[in-house]
Design brief:
195 residues, single chain, globular
Length: 195
Amino acid sequence: MQSLFDYIISTENRYNNVVNIDEKKLIVNTEITERDHIFVNRIGTVCSCPLTGDATIKEGDDVILHHNVFRKWYDSHQVEKNSASFLSENKYLVAGDQIYAYKRNGEWKCLPDYCFVKPIYKDDEWSLQTDENLSGELVYLNKKLEDLGLSKGSIVGFTPNSEYEFTIDGQKLYRILSNQITINYGSTTKDSSSG
């Protein structure tokens, strides 16, 4: 099966809401509300690519996508509904603009308009915030940002409210539009020749 404009993406789990404690499974969220977005799975596998469009993403690639793709919701009559992307059990139609990165050969690669930034945590034990405001370390970036002199490990600043939280490979990352990166503070790697 192939769609004209959309990718067909599969997933085994719609939600990432189970943790293992002492060899027992604990479900940490059972509600379907506006607050459940942090527990929605955001990684799927490409089953088929659209007949039209660019060929960057290929069948078999894992992809990072928008949380509403797999999410369930309740209508005004409190009837549980699938997302508009739902095609059949564990398969979803996904527009290209709902995909932010793809994984091939074990490496995540961002699509042209996106990057992923790891928040920088404050050393101050008395601080109420857990991470620095509006700055972080580039983890996954695209060619546009590389052409501007940025690289993995660069410390960057970004505009307010541009960060969109994900958990990728066990670490908290912000998905940020490339044009929301405002400053390059330099690299986290130190020059070994300096004292």
